[in-house]
């Protein structure tokens, strides 16, 4: 695993500084400027982060896929990050999304796209 960078970039600074990610991020946040989790409760909060719903460490093939992205305010991003701590596999992550502590980390319509009823990853096959 890549070393943590304490200057606000987190892990894998090359990815987050890369032109492709910055372009995807810029477009996504322009299209979705409000925190998507707060908006579910009629709270308007400015989006600060473009978050990977299923973290890149589990699903690199979805790192640019907008269906796996959401705009979050700082508070929601910090809470989601804290809830993800200690999860070390995609299978456990998806099970936690389905029935556990990660059940409300994204809008329900995105969650349905990302997981099946049985908790296994759906490769966005509609």
Model description:
The chain is mainly alpha-helical and 126 residues long. It is 40% helix and 6% strand. It is built from six helices and two strands; from the N terminus they run αααββααα. The protein has helices at 13-17, 19-31, 36-39, 74-84, 90-99, 108-114; strands at 49-52, 69-72. The protein has a two-stranded antiparallel ribbon. The protein is globular, with a radius of gyration of 14 Å. Residues 4-8 have low confidence and may be disordered.
Keywords summarizing the entry:
single chain; 126 residues; mainly alpha; two-stranded antiparallel sheet; 6 helices; 2 strands
C-alpha end-to-end distance: 32 Å
Structural class: mainly alpha
Largest beta-sheet details = 2 strands, antiparallel
Order of helices and strands: HHHEEHHH
What portion of the residues fall into strands of 2 or more residues? 5-15%
Count the strands?
Answer: 2
Pick out the low-confidence regions.
Answer: 4-8
**Rounded average pLDDT:** 85
| Helix percentage | 25-40%
Give the helix tally: 6
- Silhouette: globular
Please state the CA-atom Rg, rounded to the nearest Å: 14 Å
Strand order of the largest sheet: 1-2
